[in-house]
Structures are given as C-alpha cells and as structure tokens.
C-alpha cells in the first residue's frame, strides 16, 4: 500500500545507519523530535465535495486527500502539519481512454477545473488544487496502464499513458524489449507524467530523454482529440509533439503514447572511479562526452556528496575502500563517479576500457563494480531515505539546472554556496551537496540536494526553505541556466519561466494552451498564470 504521506510503499523502510545521526547533528545541530503526521486529523479537514454525483468520480475523503499533494517540500510540510487547505472535489479513475472526453465535458458543464494525475510524484506542485479555483476534478490515469500495440519490426510500442515505470517494463520484458526510461521516481511515475513534465531517466545518455522516446500519441483536449502520428522523422512544419512535451496538463490529457523501444541489453554494468578533485572529475566527464564514448550513465558527486553518500550508505566495505583511497593520497576533496555501460558485450567492454583510460588520465582511480552495484541496487530505494530523515528531524529537498560546460565548474560551487548563505540569516546550517548527471556534449545537469533541520513551526520551516530555494533559483538564472532540467515548472518554478522564455515565448505558450483549452479548465495556475 502506498503511503498517504512521504515516499513510496508503507512496507518499505530505509533505516538510518548508526553513524548517520551523529554526522547529521555535527552538521546541522541537535535534531528535533517532532510528532508524526496524523491521517485521522488530516482527513477531518477534508471539506464536503462541490461536485455532483458521477459514476466515474470518487468523492471519499481519503481518496481526495491521497490526490491532494505531490512530493515537493511544501507538499510534505502541508501533509505532515495538517495544513492541506485545498483538495480535489473528486477523483475520476477512467478505465478506458473513451471515458476521458465525457469527463472533460462533465467538468466543463460544472465549471470545474481538471487536474490530470499520473503518479503524483511531482516535486514542484504540479498536481495540487489551487485556492479559489472553484470545484476541482482530478483525473487519475491509474487504470489506463495497458500495452495497446507492439510493432516489433519497427521497435515501437503504444501504451495507455497511466502506465508506471515497473508496469511498462514488465509488459515489454516478455518480448525482450525495454524503454530504458529510469527516473529515480520510476516506481510510481507514469508515461503520461514523464511526457507532460519532460522527464529524464538515469540512463538517458544511452536511451535518450523522454522527448527522444515519445514518438506520437493521442491527447484528449476540451476541443477534441489531438492525434500525433508517429514518424521516424518529419519535415512537415513544426512538430506538435513539442507542444505536448512539458505541457504539464494544460493542453489536454495524454491518453496514449507511442514510444521507441530497444532490445533488452545483453550486458550492463555500473562501476566506480574516485577522482582527487571536482575539477579533475568534471574535466574527465566533459572529455568522455565530447569523445563520444558509448557509456550509458555518468554521475559525478562533489566531495561533500561523496562523503555523505559513503556515510549514509552505512556499508563497512566502503570504510575499507575509503581507508585505501586515503593511503594512495586521495583526501577530503575526492569525488566519486559512477559510470554505466549498456549494450552488447563488445560495446560495453570497449566503453568500459576507454572510460577507464580517460578517467586514469585525469587522476581517477577505478574501484571496480562494488560501488556501482551498490548504486544500482539502491537506485529506486534511496528516495525512502527521505522518509527516515524527515522522521529524524531533517528536511531534504533537491533542485537542478543544466548549463554549458563553460559555466559548470563555477555554477556547481555557486549554487550550493547560495543555499548555505541563505540559511545563515536564520542562524541555521544546511548540508548542501551536488552532483553532475545527465551529461551532454555541450554541458551537464547540476543537481543539488540540501538537508536542513526541521522545526515544529511549519511557517518557519517554509520561510527557511523559501529563502534557500529563491537564492538558488536566482543564482541559476544569473548563470543563464534553465530553471529545470527534469523536474518541470509547476507552481514552484513558475515565476522564473518568463526570464527563460521571454515575453513573446510566454505569449506563444499561453495561446497554445488557449487553442486547446479556450475556457482554461486544465490545470490552471501551473506552468504560467
Ligand atoms: C523521489 C523522486 C525522484 C525523482 N526523480 C526524477 C528523475 O530522476 N527524473 C525526472 O525526470 N523526474 C524525477 N522526479 C520528478 C517526477 O517524478 C517527474 O516529474 C515525473 O515525470 C512525474 O510523473 P508522474 O506520473 O508522477 O506525474 P504527476 O506528478 O502525476 O504529474 C506531473 C505533471 O504532469 C501532468 N500529467 C500527468 N499525467 C498526465 C497525462 N496523462 N496527461 C496530461 N498531463 C499529465 C500533471 O497534470 C502534472 O502537471 C522525481 C520525483 C521524486 C519524488
């Protein structure tokens, strides 16, 4: 059963290793003990639904609460402190894509707002009903999860858009295929959500981002069905898929999507390399990507993320490896790279060999498969640590951008620096760490995680979080970086979008939404006002 508050299944826990508490208290100060979130009292706050009865719409308080918030830090604060002040008035669970159009028509008749809902894993407020928006109807795609077509000859598969990562891969596996889209939220996020928020998987370097994998599909809009035919490529004017990618539920409900699939790889391996410094590691990554070496994944942690990862993983062999590295002269500035190779035995052997050689030329020490295997095993499990930390009195959030290589080095210091400075005004400290992932020939995504102490007062907590988020977002924009490489815009990044798109660009986005949804019933207040 999925937790009503926090990440993931209620049956899965990520216990905090013994050494971790002391480490966190050294950084942040004594951790507070706070009462747990309480389902009963939160349910008591769910108001009477404003929607009339409809056979496809559920209005029980618990269903509405479970679809009221996503996974952003303000969402966690609202749920954990009984501060949820807006709920969907009903949640529809269509069982066939034909039911989407009547549901949109019903919402329109009722003057209701429609929020398309995939897995609810948004970290930027995408699926939250907003105050004063009238009745809200959330349409969950949960039951639309079938593989509807498979063209093995062309390596194309069509799915209903509510399919989650594991269900999608399980449907392809018997035929020997994979989509290869593995965001860390893989367990719960959906194909429709990936498209609507321009998601990026951990091995996007090999398989491509969702915009490379999304080949066509059907979108149900208030003005009818938008059909996006699948072509290998087309020069027939602007590509309408681009309107749907990143549309964040404002253009229509993605009902079905055709995706480009690949044969399951014959071989896959993940390996660790320690670099003596951040500069040597990031130079190696740039060289690797610009030399076109066919790795499938690269993730370089800065010194603090390297140290914190080693401590929070609580593995004794890591201690041993750590001592070994110190013996060969790698000290506190060492940075861990995890790299992956995927494909045929010949290709993976070549990629591994060439990657090792380039890393070595930048002072990297190859430490074999154990670190990589540990990362692989916990790649979808580590979000559960956020639950444990929250219970231990620590709030965690992440933010990300992408920048050209020429800015990467400076920005990857300045962004964490801006977060640390912002929290100092409250006489508090944050543990701020960064990694590079999703590397490209021309640049990389800088992904920053920050941990800070929770407080009993939710307003105080939000004030601190808001100050750090704002400082980092402004720093990102000062470097000319995008406000989001993979999380999307939602509510939390909305104010930063005009600087990126320009006023003409924003007008074009608004008018496209207006074409498909002239009455503005679809997810208003997200992406733009
Ligand atoms: C622990 C954790 C790790 C994460 N890791 C990654 C990562 O590695 N890479 C990454 O890209 N993201 C990541 N995310 C962010 C999030 O998972 C992605 O944004 C994901 O694509 C959202 O998918 P979803 O199905 O949960 O969509 P939801 O959260 O349900 O919705 C997101 C947006 O898409 C719209 N939407 C959803 N389905 C449809 C549909 N069928 N039609 C129209 N609009 C729709 C919604 O209206 C909303 O605006 C992570 C989040 C968490 C909590």
Q: Write down the CATH class of the domain at 150-263.
A: Alpha Beta
- Taking the alpha carbons of the first and last residues, their distance comes to 35 Å
Mean pLDDT: 96
Bin the strand percentage: 15-25%
Shape: globular
Describe the largest sheet: 7 strands, antiparallel
Kindly identify the CATH topology of the domain at 150-263: Uridine Diphospho-n-acetylenolpyruvylglucosamine Reductase, domain 3
Low-confidence blocks of residues = none
Descriptive report:
38% of the residues lie in helices and 20% in strands. It has 19 helices and 18 strands. The mean pLDDT is 96. Strand 8 and strand 9 form a beta hairpin. Among the domains are: 101 residues, Uridine Diphospho-n-acetylenolpyruvylglucosamine Reductase, domain 2, CATH 3.30.43.10; 114 residues, Uridine Diphospho-n-acetylenolpyruvylglucosamine Reductase, domain 3 (2-Layer Sandwich), CATH 3.30.465; 111 residues, Vanillyl-alcohol Oxidase, Chain A, domain 3 (3-Layer(aba) Sandwich). By secondary structure, the protein is of the alpha+beta class. The protein has a seven-stranded antiparallel sheet, sandwiched between helices. It has a five-stranded antiparallel sheet with strand order 5-6-10-8-9. The protein has a four-stranded mixed sheet with strand order 1-2-4-3, covered by helices on one side. The structure holds flavin-adenine dinucleotide (FAD). Flavin-adenine dinucleotide (FAD) binds next to strand 3, helix 7 and strand 10.
